[in-house]
UniProtKB/TrEMBL annotation:
This is R13L1/DRL21-like LRR repeat region domain-containing protein. Residues 157-284 form the R13L1/DRL21-like LRR repeat region domain. InterPro entries: LRR_dom_sf (IPR032675), LRR_R13L1-DRL21 (IPR056789). Signal peptide: none annotated. Pfam families: LRR_R13L1-DRL21 (PF25019). SUPFAM superfamilies: L domain-like. It comes from the Eukaryota.
């Protein structure tokens, strides 16, 4: 047997029997251990946690030919130390192991590891030093900054510079960076193979103004220092506490997918219109009250300048954008572009999907977007003013969206 998938129902997992099975599978290349999370409706939902598999047999380390190991969604708190003897292991999937508290200290022995899929491991608070030795890694879902008992067994942020083959990386806990020079030594802009990057800062600071001010300044300096390489195609910035975004954000000429989430102190959107974005997601930017021409990132035409005689636009903002999501922007009231006749400009000419969610104060959608002939899908979700304005047959501006093939509302009309 080269591949084995074990599927256990609740309370049917027996570690002794699994241990015996492993002893007979020395040639195994791929192993998947999954557990059903289905329980009876009469059962207490709090019992589900106790039914999860909490331990993996130590003799898993005897499966020395293993290339792929999937332990995702189990209830394990720790991985056996013997797992570090799987020298041929290339892919380890422990996603959604929500009880997992630590990775084995000897993980650096897994020199052939290419993918460490450890996303949504919410109890995992630090990374062992050995992570920096996994120089074959292409994917690292989650790297946690700081943590550990005394810091001596914790992999530092700057150690990521050893992983030059990384193509995808998520960095969490950036609020734990103690000194800016640690981020400077990382030299993130030199990771020329990096394509997908997620930067997650700390939670919003409550309480004294001085503490909030320190977080703002620290986050702004840190994000400025963490400039990605030009190779990046997907970028996420989460829980950023600064007021402004760094200038490097508008210079990522290969960026296709950008999401900004819970950057609650930012009052203005960055000028993104010149980027080759195909998907843009803006969520929970609570301090943004207005979106206007500054978002387009285009220079305004001079009042006295000659107007273009050509019928084609001289400037295209967001030339490749297909999907735009705006959500939970509680203070957003106005979204409009003031374009004069002399400004020969096209805005989002390829937009096919627009979602606006939980923007309670937003008064209207920009006519420029609604007139885009490529727009196929429009979702308006919990936006009471927009719902009244564009309601089918009743709203004053229903005629502006009636040509769109697919329109979704919530709540339903």
């Amino acid at each position: 047997i080269r591949q084995l998938r074990l599927f256990f129902r609740p309370n049917t997992y027996k570690i002794r029997e699994t241990r015996k099975l492993f002893s007979k599978l020395a040639c195994l290349r791929a192993l998947v251990i999954r557990q059903s999370l289905v329980i009876r409706l009469s059962s207490s939902p709090f019992r589900l946690h106790s039914n999860l598999i909490r331990e993996i047999p130590k003799n898993v380390g005897k499966l020395i030919h293993l290339r792929y190991l999937n332990l995702s969604e189990l209830g394990i708190e720790r991985l056996p130390k013997t797992l570090c003897e799987l020298y041929n292991l290339q892919k380890l999937d422990i996603r959604r192991c929500r009880n997992l508290k630590e990775l084995p200290a000897g993980i650096g022995k897994l020199k052939n590891m290419r993918s460490l899929l450890n996303g949504e491991t919410y109890s995992l608070k630090y990374m062992p030093v050995g992570i920096s030795k996994l120089t074959s890694l292409r994917t690292l879902d989650k790297f946690v900054v700081g943590g550990g008992i005394d810091g001596s067994n914790t992999c530092r942020l700057e150690s990521l510079k050893n992983l030059q083959l990384l193509r995808e990386c998520g960095i969490e806990g950036l609020g734990n960076v103690s000194h800016l020079d640690e981020a400077e030594r990382l030299q993130l802009y030199n990771q020329q193979n990096l394509l997908r990057l997620r930067l997650e800062f700390g939670r919003v600071v409550d309480g004294e103004d001085e503490a909030r001010r320190r977080k703002k300044e620290k986050d702004e300096q840190l994000l400025k220092t963490l400039q990605p390489p030009l190779s990046v195609e997907k970028l996420g910035i989460i829980l950023y506490g600064g007021n402004i975004f760094p200038k490097w954000l508008t210079s990522l000429t290969n960026l296709r997918n950008l999401y900004l989430r819970s950057c609650v102190k930012c009052e203005h959107l960055p000028p993104l219109g010149k980027l080759p974005l195909e998907k843009l997601e803006l969520r929970n930017l609570k301090s943004v009250k207005r979106v206007g021409n500054e978002f387009l990132g285009t220079e305004e035409s001079s009042e006295d300048g000659p107007s273009s005689s050509s019928s084609s636009p001289s400037v295209i903002a967001f030339p490749k954008l297909k999907s735009l999501i705006i959500g939970a922007m509680e203070e957003l009231e106005e979204w409009n572009y003031r374009i004069t006749r002399k400004e020969n400009i096209s805005i989002m000419p390829r937009l096919s999907s627009l979602e606006v969610r939980s923007c309670n104060k937003l008064k209207a959608l920009p006519d420029y977007l609604l007139q885009t002939t490529t727009l196929q899908d429009l979702t308006i979700w919990k936006c009471p003013i927009l719902e009244n304005r564009y309601r089918e047959g009743k709203g004053e501006d229903w005629h502006k969206i009636s040509h769109i093939p697919h329109i979704k509302w919530w709540p339903l009309p």
